[in-house]
Amino acid sequence: MKSDFGDSISNKVYEHRVLAKLTQAELAKAVGVSKQTIFVMEKGNYVPSLLLAFRIADFFKVNINEIFTYVKGTDGHDG
């Protein structure tokens, strides 16, 4: 049975996009997704696939860890 550990991925897509002076639509087109995908990702409501995360990092010419951060949750066990 799969356990929900509460892990998540935070991102800085919005910050990188704004610094690059791009619209959501422009970034979406550049990485091959819809504007809606960029919108929900920036709001923290969507975790991209690993492939998409690498595409975005490559587009901005940064290490993937500069945009996406793993946030460890808990498995509900104390030890």
From TrEMBL:
Query: Which PROSITE patterns does UniProt cross-reference here?
Result: HTH_CROC1 (PS50943)
From the UniProt record, list the coiled-coil ranges.
Answer: none
Query: NADP: present as a keyword of the record?
Result: no
- Which residues belong to any copy of the HTH cro/C1-type domain? 13-67
DNA-binding recorded as keyword = yes
Keywords for this protein: DNA-binding
Q: Which Pfam families match?
A: HTH_3
The highest taxon in the source lineage is: Bacteria
What's the protein name?
A: Transcriptional regulator
Q: What is the protein's species of origin?
A: Chryseomicrobium excrementi
